[in-house]
Amino acid sequence: MTIDFGFSETIKGFMADNEARCLYDTALTASAMGPCLEIGSYCGKSAYFIGLACRENGSVLYSIDHHRGSEEQQPGQEYFDPDLYDSSYGVINTFEFFRQTIKQAGLDETVIPVVTSSATAGKMWATPIAMLFIDGGHTFEAAFNDYQTWAGHIVSGGFLVIHDIFMDPAAGGQAPRQIYEMALDSHQYQTMGLTGTLGVLRKIQ
Predict the structure, then answer these.
(1) Residue 92, burial from CB neighbour count under 10 angstroms (0-12, 13-18, 19+)
(2) What InterPro entries does its record include (predicted)?
(3) CB of 51 within 8 A of CB of 102?
């Protein structure tokens, strides 16, 4: 299965094509070992790339998001999108956009939405995962909590993938870079390199 970049361009979200290809390739390797899990679904762009890979191997993707938007996507903030604002309830609601993406991509039997916060979903989680993709809230607290909650569920030989790693503080927020470096400093991972702002680590113990 190849990525349809024409389709992916219609999905709201933020990921360069070279990052998408790297994410797909990593998920293709990982999903042969077990399920994948992502934190931060938004409108389903990353779920499309990971889901395609999982479907190739008969695996699944658990896609966790409360679908109320991250800090920078709220009204008045830099990445606010009025199309995603539900005026009936006065909140961001990305879930219907996410469901539409998954349906159009034919991934209903592959992508499993978990509509709650990362912390809540992780409270009783017991399923080992072959790949963890962190792309949720970009404050240090949010990114650190995602890492702390989920990294322990990655199987040996599995992958930790982190988006929006900016080595230059002037280029973007630093929380993803900080947890990427924290994972490396734990000596539990080896780096597989950076593609754009997408960092891939493989768990070695």
Answers:
(1) buried
(2) SAM-dependent_MTases_sf
(3) yes
Single out the residue of 89, 87, 70, 88 nearest to residue 79, CA to CA: 70
Q: Is beta strand 111-114 parallel, antiparallel or unpaired with respect to 61-64?
A: parallel
Residue 17 identity (one-letter amino acid): D
pLDDT for 83 equals: 77
Global pTM value: 0.94
Measured at the alpha carbon of residue 193, what is the angle toward residues 189 and 198, in degrees to the nearest 5? Answer: 100
Here the tokens at position 101 are 């993406």
Please say whether the beta carbons of 73 and 23 come within 8 A: no
Answer for the pair 201, 151: CB distance below 8 angstroms, yes or no. no
Which residues of the chain carry a pLDDT beneath 70?
Answer: 1
Q: Which residues are catalytic?
A: 138
Give the chain's domains with CATH numbers. 5-203 (3.40.50.150)
What pLDDT, on the 0 to 100 scale, is given for residue 197? 97
What pLDDT shows up at residue 1? Answer: 66
